[in-house]
Amino acid sequence: MRISLVSLVVDDYDLAIEFFVGVLGFELVEDSPSLTNDGRAKRWVVVRPPNAESGLLLAQADGDAQVAATGNQTGGRVGFFLQVDDFDGQHRRMVEAGVEFLGEPRSEPYGRVVVFRDIAGNKWDLLGPR
């Protein structure tokens, strides 16, 4: 058993792809036309870090409830965790790309960490080795 995808509600498919692929360095696994349950056009967009099995299904907000949840899918808590081998290099690339960080990197018993916001406003931990 494994978790293959987690949905992430976003405002716009293309802006989200640019952030996750262009800024974070994820791979665009799939971007295919699809339909909603009631027959309206949508896209099936999957991104994931290189060599990862789990990925994100980028789901464009559809309806008031989803628009309201965009950027706050975990009630304001850090809900997503990006583990990297080169913490300083990844952090530097993200700073240069204008990613919003909520503090400075710090060392914890489990490694280096800093909180950042994705393109929708969700909080993530960028995690690296000690």
UniProtKB/TrEMBL annotation:
InterPro entries: Glyas_Bleomycin-R_OHBP_Dase, Glyas_Fos-R_dOase_dom, VOC_core
Gene3D superfamilies xref list: 2,3-Dihydroxybiphenyl 1,2-Dioxygenase, domain 1
Record-annotated VOC domain positions: 2-129
Pfam families reported for this sequence: Glyoxalase
PROSITE patterns in UniProt: VOC (PS51819)
Highest rank taxon of the organism: Bacteria
UniProt-listed SUPFAM superfamilies: Glyoxalase/Bleomycin resistance protein/Dihydroxybiphenyl dioxygenase
Protein name (record): VOC family protein
Record lineage: Bacteria, Bacillati, Actinomycetota, Actinomycetes, Pseudonocardiales
